User: What shape does this take?
Amino acid sequence: MQALIPVTVVTGFLGSGKTTLLSSLLERRQTRRLAILINEFGEVSIDGPLIRQAADGDDLVQIHDFAYGLIAYGDDEKFIPTMQAIAKRRANFDHVLIETSGLALPTAVMELLQGPELANDFILDATLAVVDTPLLLTDSFERNRAESNSHSVENSVASMFEQQLEFSDVVVLNKIDELNEDQLLKAETQIRARAPNVRFLELAYKAQLDVRLALGLRLHQPTLMNNKHRYTVLPTMPESGSSPLANQSLLNGHSHSGMSSHSHGLATHKHFHEQDPGWLSFVVRTTELQNSAILQQALVEIAKLEPVLRTKGFIRTENTAQAMLVQGVRTRVTVNESTENKHEDAQPETKSELVFIGYHLNRNHIAKLLADMTNSVWR
Assistant: This one.
């Protein structure tokens, strides 16, 4: 039987720093030959160009963009064919990395990896959840106990965050450079309270993680005991229509280094919009050159007025011929010069585009606010 290709799934809520962490792993991958699948909840790929920038044209790294929609969910027709194409060229790859959208659960990928189309070629190596630690410490992922509507923004955010942690093997505390030991201990305590079965907690200073702590963990490898493979039956998640996998012989419940088994339940996945249609993503564009300081302040103010949880994109300014990279998590917004000479989707060179992701966003209102605050026409 041919060796299975290990797959690492990188999950985490909007703006946790998955792409930056993945870029640092890419730079430290040593001689590993990687296939990387990048998923964004929006019609424009912003993270894909950033990963390509980190790859720096390396022929041993192959990158696939999955823009608009959620990778491996019900209506994604691209995931399985892409993985099958990778399997046909298995001699060219040592590992597959999958960065899910900030609004996806890793179990969607996990389930398909165990399905008949992929199970003979791939095996889950580990699932990593990246956490915006300063945001965690502000209690931004707490539920609104007084709000009976489960689809309030607080409860929807909390639910997604908790489930991403629940189905992860490793939690990476990111953005920790300005935190002290007491704050790190508090963050770890909060993670353990939410997801007691997480196997490891790792610290990512400067968004960097030792590649040995991310790749090759082998947390889902079958264990051979008495010439027979020993596995742990998977429980179902409490969701209508869920059931155990027909073939339980593909997992061992994380039997690893003598640790007790740690099993994941796999849900029947509907498209995210069917579960909670309040989550929205849209793009606004302008061909007018921008003042980066004015735009940055505008995005901060908009995040105070609308439930914007994530902003990202590329803008053009009068001060530089290069695109400026915009990254926003709620009211924390940065605008920095991109090291790319040109964003591949930006035509003509004066074109700026911003992706907004949030809960029950009003596109027209946001476009008007942005136009008024920047004195530009955004469409």
In short: The mean pLDDT is 80. The chain is about 25% helix and 25% strand. The two ends are 55 Å apart (CA to CA). The chain has two domains: 5-272, 278-374.
